[in-house]
Amino acid sequence: MSSKVFEDDKLTEYRVLAPFTWFGLDIGGSLTKLVYFEPNDIPDNDEDSSDIKKTVNIIHKYLSGNTAYGNTGVRDTHLEISIALGGYHGSMHFIRFPTSAMPAFIDLAKAKNFPLLATTVCATGGGAHKFSELYETNLKMRLRKIDELAALIRGIYYMDSVNANECFFFTDPTDDHLYAKHTYDFSNPYPYLCVNIGSGVSILAVTGANSFTRVGGTSIGGGTFLGLCAALTGCGSFEEAIDLASTGDNARCDKLVSDIYGGDYDKFSLPGHLVASSFGYMMDPERMKSASTADMARSCLAMITYNISSLARLNAEKLDMERVVFVGNFLRRNTLSMRLLSHAMDYWSKKSMKALFLQHEGYFGAVGSLLELINPQFTDQY
After folding, report:
1. I need a labelling partner for 73 at 20 to 30 A (CA). Which of 66, 144, 256, 272 fits?
2. Domains 2-153+364-374 and 167-253+291-358 share a fold
3. Is 239 among the residues known to form the active site?
4. CA distances from residue 257 to 52, 219, 265, 275 in whole angstroms, order as listed
């Protein structure tokens, strides 16, 4: 069989030696996301050498037979879905590892003889440029660089089309006992605002499957949360920071409206529980002593989440958009932030805007890269 890729800046035909070559990378500032398609049956191509067949089987067995790779690589088994892709039926797998471990990943790919199966890999994210020379030197493989935001939007559109439960929203987000997730029909979404929360944040106005504009962003994102938590609490991972925040009370670090006014500020409809000053109590030595690391982590999370929700709401209001879709790896295992975002959007928009979320969180750029291998639509973007 054949497919198309860009080789030497020209659209050419090439033969896909094995379905394993169908994978995409999103190499972010903090985290690398890998999506790969595993067919139910590996095609028996008489033209393939025994070495190729052996390599395909080894790599399939390694990736699908493990949920952890080395010290930091993880396969998110709960996100796996069965799909039909490129004429094959199979499973789509989702793997992540810290971008700092990229040299180890390249060594693994070399050890598993991956260069025997492909000469070009579709990749997006800043690391697609940063690590390009390393791939070419160590693996003799070219990273075909796909625009990050184009891959993101394409990945969102595709995943919603193949997963009926992809999009969801929350009701009663502030109630620890009553809050609930509900599926949202995202089949006719346009226009919507897409807020991509990675190390930093990009905000996109999306008006069609291939029509979007970056309208804003902020450097205060997931990388900020982890960096501050590491500095303040000594935590060593995003998961540890989220676990800490989930047990903390930010009111022990933050000054609330009620702390300043003695209650609600009715004139401007500001409830007493609203944060008036993030970390506002940390200038008090006694308060600082009484605040736990969990309280500080919770304060970091609330500060960053509410800042993102404010920017999202203001942009949605300016563009007259009612649907705001939050994606990105900051939301991984982070129901707390999703609930905070839902509450903030509901409250400040008087429920005229809806905060929406997607099951596959931060993998859409990698999905878009995979789709680019199967069905190219974009020229090289770097």
Report:
1. 144
2. yes
3. no
4. 65, 26, 7, 6
Q: Stretch 102-115: mean pLDDT, rounded?
A: 85
Question: Does the model's pTM come out above 0.70?
Answer: yes
Highest CATH level, class, for 2-153+364-374: alpha beta
**Catalytic hit among 47, 80, 148, 286:** 148
3-class secondary structure, 304: helix
Fold of 167-253+291-358: Nucleotidyltransferase; domain 5 (3.30.420)
Task: Answer yes or no: is pLDDT of 81 > 90.
Answer: yes
Q: Residue ranges of the domains in the chain? A: 2-153+364-374, 167-253+291-358
CA distance 42 to 112: 18
Predicted confidence (pLDDT) per residue in 313-347, tens digit = 999 999 999 999 999 999 998 999 999 999 999 99
- Predicted confidence band at 230 (pLDDT cuts at 50, 70, 90)? very high
Percent of the chain with pLDDT over 70: 90
Residue 194 pairs with which residues in a beta bridge?
Answer: 204, 325
User: How many residues appear in the chain?
Assistant: 382
